[in-house]
Amino acid sequence: MPHIFSPAANPALPIRGCADTFPVRRVYCVGRNYADHAIEMGHDPDKEPPFFFQKNPDNLVTDAEFPYPVQSSDVHHEIELVVCLSKGGSDIAVDQALGCVYGYAVGLDMTRRDLQGEAKKMGRPWEIGKAFEKSAPVSAVVPASEIGHPAAGAIWLKVNGETRQNGDLNQMIWKVAESISYLSGLFTLAPGDVIMTGTPAGVGAVKRGDRLEGHIDGIGDLDVTVV
What we know:
Blueprint: E1 12-15, E2 18-23, E3 27-30, H1 35-40, E4 52-55, E5 60-61, E6 65-66, E7 75-77, E8 79-85, H2 94-97, E9 101-108, E10 111-112, H3 113-121, H4 127-130, E11 136-137, E12 142-143, H5 144-147, E13 154-159, E14 162-168, H6 176-184, E15 194-196, E16 204-205, E17 211-216, E18 220-226
Parallel strand pairs: 3-15, 5-11, 6-18
Antiparallel strand pairs: 1-2, 3-4, 7-10, 7-16, 8-9, 8-15, 9-12, 13-14, 13-17, 17-18
Protein name: Fumarylacetoacetate hydrolase family protein
GO molecular function, one term: hydrolase activity
Domain Fumarylacetoacetase-like C-terminal: 27-227
Protein backbone atom coordinates (compact mmCIF):
# COMPACT_ATOMS: atom_id res chain seq x y z
CA MET A 1 0.00 0.00 0.00
CA PRO A 2 1.23 3.53 -0.63
CA HIS A 3 2.72 5.59 2.20
CA ILE A 4 1.20 8.88 3.30
CA PHE A 5 4.62 10.48 2.73
CA SER A 6 7.94 9.35 1.26
CA PRO A 7 9.88 7.23 3.79
CA ALA A 8 13.36 8.27 4.81
CA ALA A 9 16.26 6.62 3.01
CA ASN A 10 17.74 3.64 4.82
CA PRO A 11 21.06 4.54 6.48
CA ALA A 12 24.07 2.77 4.94
CA LEU A 13 27.83 2.71 5.40
CA PRO A 14 30.44 2.61 2.64
CA ILE A 15 32.52 -0.55 2.22
CA ARG A 16 36.22 -0.14 1.56
CA GLY A 17 37.13 -1.05 -2.01
CA CYS A 18 33.53 -1.80 -3.00
CA ALA A 19 30.79 0.13 -4.79
CA ASP A 20 28.14 -1.57 -2.63
CA THR A 21 27.13 -0.25 0.78
CA PHE A 22 26.29 -1.86 4.11
CA PRO A 23 22.63 -1.15 5.02
CA VAL A 24 22.13 -0.44 8.73
CA ARG A 25 19.21 -2.02 10.57
CA ARG A 26 19.86 -1.43 14.28
CA VAL A 27 22.73 -0.09 16.38
CA TYR A 28 23.59 -1.76 19.68
CA CYS A 29 26.30 -0.42 22.00
CA VAL A 30 28.14 -2.35 24.71
CA GLY A 31 28.51 -0.29 27.87
CA ARG A 32 31.73 -0.13 29.91
CA ASN A 33 33.46 -2.96 28.04
CA TYR A 34 37.04 -2.02 28.92
CA ALA A 35 38.08 -2.43 32.56
CA ASP A 36 39.99 0.86 32.80
CA HIS A 37 37.06 2.79 31.35
CA ALA A 38 34.62 1.11 33.76
CA ILE A 39 36.89 2.17 36.63
CA GLU A 40 37.20 5.77 35.41
CA MET A 41 33.39 5.91 35.28
CA GLY A 42 33.18 4.72 38.88
CA HIS A 43 32.27 1.05 38.39
CA ASP A 44 33.84 -2.30 39.24
CA PRO A 45 34.18 -4.31 35.99
CA ASP A 46 34.53 -7.60 37.87
CA LYS A 47 30.98 -7.38 39.23
CA GLU A 48 29.03 -6.47 36.09
CA PRO A 49 27.53 -8.66 33.35
CA PRO A 50 27.43 -6.99 29.90
CA PHE A 51 24.75 -4.41 29.28
CA PHE A 52 23.62 -2.64 26.14
CA PHE A 53 22.03 0.57 24.98
CA GLN A 54 21.06 1.69 21.50
CA LYS A 55 21.66 4.47 19.06
CA ASN A 56 19.43 5.17 16.08
CA PRO A 57 20.53 3.85 12.67
CA ASP A 58 20.66 7.36 11.21
CA ASN A 59 22.99 8.48 14.03
CA LEU A 60 25.75 6.68 12.07
CA VAL A 61 27.40 9.09 9.65
CA THR A 62 30.56 9.21 7.58
CA ASP A 63 30.83 12.99 7.67
CA ALA A 64 34.22 14.59 8.28
CA GLU A 65 32.56 17.12 10.57
CA PHE A 66 30.76 16.54 13.87
CA PRO A 67 28.35 19.36 14.77
CA TYR A 68 28.52 20.19 18.48
CA PRO A 69 25.01 19.34 19.72
CA VAL A 70 22.57 21.72 21.36
CA GLN A 71 21.41 21.37 24.95
CA SER A 72 24.85 20.25 26.11
CA SER A 73 28.06 21.85 27.35
CA ASP A 74 29.98 18.61 28.04
CA VAL A 75 30.32 16.39 24.97
CA HIS A 76 32.79 13.49 25.21
CA HIS A 77 34.63 11.35 22.66
CA GLU A 78 34.64 7.53 22.86
CA ILE A 79 36.65 5.60 20.23
CA GLU A 80 35.25 2.14 19.46
CA LEU A 81 35.55 -0.97 17.31
CA VAL A 82 32.38 -1.24 15.22
CA VAL A 83 31.09 -4.70 14.23
CA CYS A 84 28.77 -5.09 11.22
CA LEU A 85 26.63 -8.23 10.90
CA SER A 86 25.52 -9.96 7.70
CA LYS A 87 23.80 -12.82 9.53
CA GLY A 88 21.75 -13.01 12.71
CA GLY A 89 19.51 -15.15 14.84
CA SER A 90 18.60 -15.82 18.45
CA ASP A 91 20.69 -17.57 21.11
CA ILE A 92 23.76 -17.72 18.89
CA ALA A 93 26.54 -19.90 20.33
CA VAL A 94 29.83 -18.15 21.06
CA ASP A 95 31.72 -20.46 18.71
CA GLN A 96 29.30 -19.58 15.89
CA ALA A 97 29.08 -15.84 16.52
CA LEU A 98 31.96 -14.61 14.36
CA GLY A 99 30.31 -16.31 11.39
CA CYS A 100 27.68 -13.57 11.59
CA VAL A 101 30.22 -10.76 11.10
CA TYR A 102 30.52 -9.12 7.70
CA GLY A 103 33.20 -6.62 8.68
CA TYR A 104 34.58 -4.00 11.01
CA ALA A 105 34.94 -0.21 11.17
CA VAL A 106 36.33 2.53 13.38
CA GLY A 107 33.67 4.57 15.17
CA LEU A 108 33.09 7.32 17.71
CA ASP A 109 30.33 7.10 20.29
CA MET A 110 29.92 10.83 20.91
CA THR A 111 28.16 11.41 24.21
CA ARG A 112 26.37 14.36 25.79
CA ARG A 113 27.91 13.47 29.15
CA ASP A 114 26.03 16.09 31.14
CA LEU A 115 22.65 14.89 29.87
CA GLN A 116 23.65 11.25 30.34
CA GLY A 117 24.71 12.01 33.91
CA GLU A 118 21.36 13.64 34.68
CA ALA A 119 19.53 10.61 33.24
CA LYS A 120 21.61 8.24 35.38
CA LYS A 121 20.84 10.16 38.56
CA MET A 122 17.13 10.02 37.82
CA GLY A 123 17.16 6.34 36.79
CA ARG A 124 16.12 7.19 33.26
CA PRO A 125 17.28 5.80 29.88
CA TRP A 126 20.45 7.16 28.28
CA GLU A 127 19.17 7.96 24.80
CA ILE A 128 19.13 11.70 25.47
CA GLY A 129 22.89 11.54 25.98
CA LYS A 130 23.72 8.93 23.35
CA ALA A 131 21.24 8.82 20.46
CA PHE A 132 21.33 12.37 19.15
CA GLU A 133 21.90 13.50 15.56
CA LYS A 134 25.27 12.53 14.01
CA SER A 135 26.44 11.07 17.33
CA ALA A 136 28.30 8.16 15.71
CA PRO A 137 30.88 9.10 13.06
CA VAL A 138 32.07 5.86 11.42
CA SER A 139 34.74 4.91 8.91
CA ALA A 140 34.19 2.70 5.87
CA VAL A 141 33.51 -0.96 6.69
CA VAL A 142 36.40 -3.36 6.10
CA PRO A 143 35.23 -6.91 5.22
CA ALA A 144 36.31 -9.70 7.56
CA SER A 145 37.07 -11.73 4.44
CA GLU A 146 40.04 -9.39 3.94
CA ILE A 147 41.32 -8.91 7.49
CA GLY A 148 39.91 -11.78 9.53
CA HIS A 149 38.55 -11.11 13.03
CA PRO A 150 40.96 -8.87 14.98
CA ALA A 151 41.17 -9.92 18.63
CA ALA A 152 44.15 -7.71 19.47
CA GLY A 153 45.65 -4.49 18.20
CA ALA A 154 46.01 -0.87 19.16
CA ILE A 155 42.94 1.34 19.43
CA TRP A 156 43.63 5.01 20.05
CA LEU A 157 42.27 8.53 19.71
CA LYS A 158 44.13 11.81 19.41
CA VAL A 159 42.62 15.24 19.95
CA ASN A 160 44.56 18.02 18.21
CA GLY A 161 47.52 15.67 17.96
CA GLU A 162 47.53 14.73 21.66
CA THR A 163 46.79 11.11 22.56
CA ARG A 164 43.71 10.91 24.77
CA GLN A 165 42.73 7.24 24.53
CA ASN A 166 45.18 4.40 24.02
CA GLY A 167 44.20 0.75 24.48
CA ASP A 168 44.21 -2.66 22.85
CA LEU A 169 41.31 -4.72 21.52
CA ASN A 170 42.43 -7.60 23.74
CA GLN A 171 41.43 -5.50 26.77
CA MET A 172 37.73 -5.85 26.02
CA ILE A 173 35.97 -7.54 28.94
CA TRP A 174 33.40 -9.12 26.63
CA LYS A 175 35.01 -10.12 23.34
CA VAL A 176 33.20 -9.67 20.03
CA ALA A 177 31.91 -13.25 19.84
CA GLU A 178 30.75 -13.16 23.46
CA SER A 179 28.94 -9.85 22.95
CA ILE A 180 27.14 -11.16 19.86
CA SER A 181 26.13 -14.35 21.66
CA TYR A 182 24.89 -12.55 24.78
CA LEU A 183 23.05 -9.89 22.78
CA SER A 184 21.32 -12.56 20.67
CA GLY A 185 19.77 -13.90 23.87
CA LEU A 186 18.10 -10.52 24.41
CA PHE A 187 17.20 -9.59 20.82
CA THR A 188 16.83 -11.41 17.53
CA LEU A 189 19.83 -10.19 15.56
CA ALA A 190 19.63 -9.73 11.78
CA PRO A 191 21.72 -8.69 8.78
CA GLY A 192 22.44 -4.97 8.97
CA ASP A 193 22.81 -4.87 12.74
CA VAL A 194 25.78 -2.90 14.04
CA ILE A 195 27.47 -3.37 17.42
CA MET A 196 29.68 -0.67 18.93
CA THR A 197 31.89 -2.62 21.31
CA GLY A 198 32.87 -0.10 24.00
CA THR A 199 35.73 2.30 24.57
CA PRO A 200 39.07 2.22 26.40
CA ALA A 201 39.94 4.66 29.19
CA GLY A 202 40.68 8.32 28.56
CA VAL A 203 37.30 9.67 27.46
CA GLY A 204 37.06 13.43 27.71
CA ALA A 205 35.40 16.60 26.55
CA VAL A 206 35.68 18.12 23.10
CA LYS A 207 35.12 21.67 21.92
CA ARG A 208 34.41 23.33 18.60
CA GLY A 209 37.46 23.34 16.38
CA ASP A 210 38.96 20.14 17.83
CA ARG A 211 40.32 17.57 15.41
CA LEU A 212 39.69 13.94 16.43
CA GLU A 213 41.94 11.29 14.86
CA GLY A 214 41.02 7.68 15.63
CA HIS A 215 42.79 4.47 14.68
CA ILE A 216 42.42 0.71 15.08
CA ASP A 217 45.22 -1.56 13.90
CA GLY A 218 44.29 -3.59 10.84
CA ILE A 219 41.02 -1.74 10.30
CA GLY A 220 41.73 1.89 9.57
CA ASP A 221 41.44 5.49 10.61
CA LEU A 222 38.79 8.10 11.31
CA ASP A 223 39.35 11.86 11.06
CA VAL A 224 36.61 14.18 12.36
CA THR A 225 36.52 17.89 13.19
CA VAL A 226 34.13 19.32 15.77
CA VAL A 227 32.22 22.26 14.31
